[in-house]
Amino acid sequence: MLTPPEGASRWRRGHTGHMYGNDFAEPDDPGAGPLNAADGGAVEAAAAHVDTKSQQGLETFDAIIAADQRIEPRDAMPEEYRQTLIRQIAQHAHSEIIGMQPEGNWITRAPSLRRKAILIAKVQDEAGHGLYLYSAAETLGIDREELLDRLHTGKQKYSSIFNYPTLTWADCGAIGWLVDGAAIMNQVPLCRCSYGPYARAMIRTCKEESFHQRQGFELLWELMRGTPEQQAMAQDATNRWWWPALAMFGPRDTGEHAVTGGHTEQSMAWGIKRFSNDDLRQKFVDMTVPQAQRLGVTLPDPDLKWNAERGHYDFGEIDWDEFWRVIKGDGACNAARIERRVTSHQQGAWVREAAAAYAAKQRQRASAGAAGEGSAA
Ligand code: 3HC
Questions:
Q1: Residue 222: pLDDT above 60?
Q2: Are the beta carbons of 217 and 294 closer than 8 angstroms?
């Protein structure tokens, strides 16, 4: 039995009934006790909590998952669950920061000040998403430096989509509309992921992705209402990004890869993934076809047609050989993306050193100040 922190009007043992999860009281609950854990004896309570958990083994984990609630960093969890999350969250974080490159390439060439400002804000958002995600991964007990090292040495993947080149300005529109559109379709269900820090990181990310998707649509909308050359540019970008966007959802739910290397079944059982890759892909197609009709672009798939019986659009087969080739490193931009990433990391070393030196100085001053106060008393 856990002891309530002193001052708390109530205490929920194993409480997981809220979005903020079982380690947090609701922020607007006045009876929830002191916010600072050290003020309320919560540190001791947390230590006791960990002891209880280790005695209880993983029963609590199973119960939390069965109740469709959130696992928090201090909860006991199976090692495979932890590793699966590290793999997925890291791949996601890497995708966000590598994803800055294809559009970052167009910041200096954006056709107006308004477009430049929008693009800078969007690329900066992607950096922010990477930071939320690396922080979420760190709560699983892995160091950010280690994760970046795994990206730089090719031990961890990032999304296949970012190995395609941005050849024209319209590609920025197609990325916003299709790539961010696919990302939202995949990430909104992750707001209900069973791991609390990942789920919470997804909430703001999805709001920002939603803005990204709309700005991409609006960019293409303008082009489609422009000159014949601009319309052709928008259509060409749509042609090149449609299939890679569909492939972003990952391999099919059935077939060789699902059996030998697929994670979906286990991840769904753990409440990490809420929908399978094929289900999300279908939702994306169903959502995007009417948008393409409004824009006036043609989606490059002769097999795309409404199936009244299924209540969904049928669509053609993705080139899975190309998908696996790109993931294994043979896409148009794999080498350039990693080289740029590693160079930026090296060039940023002085910033990290300066930040660490500043933090150390602040700590030193704070402890010298505290010692001074102590001796004065
Ligand atoms: N690119 C690269 N690798 C991919 C991939 C893709 N599009 N889709 C699947 N894979 C890899 C998986 O990582 C796994 O490889 P591994 O065992 O070596 O890790 C293998 O293919 C089998 O795929 P599974 O479907 O079984 O793997 P998952 O269960 O992890 O599902 C996923 C794949 C749906 C991408 C899932 O990891 C996920 O939902 N991730 C979170 C979202 C994410 O990472 N999105 C990336 C894009 S972010 C983005 O677009 C940013 C935006 O700002 C534009």
A1: yes
A2: no
Q: How far is the CA of 236 from the centre of ligand 1 (A)?
A: 26
Lowest mean pLDDT among 3-17, 196-210, 305-319: 3-17
Q: How confident is the model at residue 78 (pLDDT cuts 50, 70, 90)?
A: very high
How far is it, in rounded angstroms, from Cα 331 to Cα 307?
33
- Find out whether the beta carbon of 258 lies less than 6 Å from any atom of ligand 1: no
Task: Output the CA 206–ligand 1 centroid distance in Å.
Answer: 17
- For ligand 1, whether the C-beta of 163 sits within 6 Å is no
Label residue 257 exposed, middle or buried (CB < 10 Å: 0-12, 13-18, 19+): middle
Is residue 87 in contact with ligand 1, taking CB distance under 6 Å?
A: yes
Residue closest to 267 by CA, chosen among 257, 259, 276, 258: 276
| pLDDT at residue 209, as a whole number | 95
Distance 43 CA to ligand 1 centre (A): 37
Ligand 1 midpoint to CA 249 (Å): 7
Choose the residue to mutate in 263, 273, 318 for probing ligand 1, maximizing ligand atoms within 8 Å of C-beta.
263
**CA separation for the pair 174, 177 (Å, rounded):** 5
How many residues appear in the chain?
A: 377
Round the average pLDDT of the chain to a whole number and report it: 88
Closest CA to 74 of 26, 14, 11: 14
Asked if 303 contacts 314 with a C-beta cutoff of 8 angstroms, the reply is yes
Sign of CA dihedral 138, 142, 145, 151: negative
Give the span between the Cα atoms of 341 and 153, in whole angstroms: 11
214: Cα within 13 Å, side-chain hemisphere: 6
Model-level pTM greater than 0.70? yes
Q: What is the pLDDT of residues 177-189, one digit of tens each?
A: 999 999 999 999 9
- CA-277 nearest atom, ligand 1: 34
